[in-house]
Amino acid sequence: VGLWVVAPGAGLLLFLVSSAIHFGEGDAPRSIPRVRRWMCVAAHGSAPIVLTSVLHPGDVGVVFGWLLGAPGTEISAWLGVNRPWLLMAWGAAALAGHLGRWDLPERRSVMELCLLTVAFAVLPPLLSFTVYF
Predict the structure, then answer these.
(1) pLDDT category, 37, cuts 50, 70, 90?
(2) pTM for the whole thing?
(3) Listed residue (73, 54, 53, 56) closest to 12, CA to CA
(4) What 3-state DSSP class applies to 62?
(5) I want to staple 75 with a disulfide (CB 3.0 to 4.6 A). Which of 61, 102, 121, 128 is the partner?
């Protein structure tokens, strides 16, 4: 909280990264090699953050604006401009994490990630996060 007060951008970034690791640790299959597993942790854990942000920049910009004490319209514009880069980074992590052998836990993991991607795309952000959680 202190970091958030002193440096809101760094505080929000640290919060989002730690949340992504926390979420991803629980969702990534444990049966895959370590490097691939960390890619799965990144893809699964960052899905609710990255996909919601780039697919609903207006809604997320408002919330991030409150958290940062900045205009939500500027954050929404930044998310819109950086949408391709954020999606490519997320997609690269998802592909790198799931390229390899396809045992049952991994197939379930891919199916879950695909269904969540659709949910984040078509549902409002709060509802999609609730479905994810």
Answers:
(1) confident
(2) 0.84
(3) 53
(4) helix
(5) 61
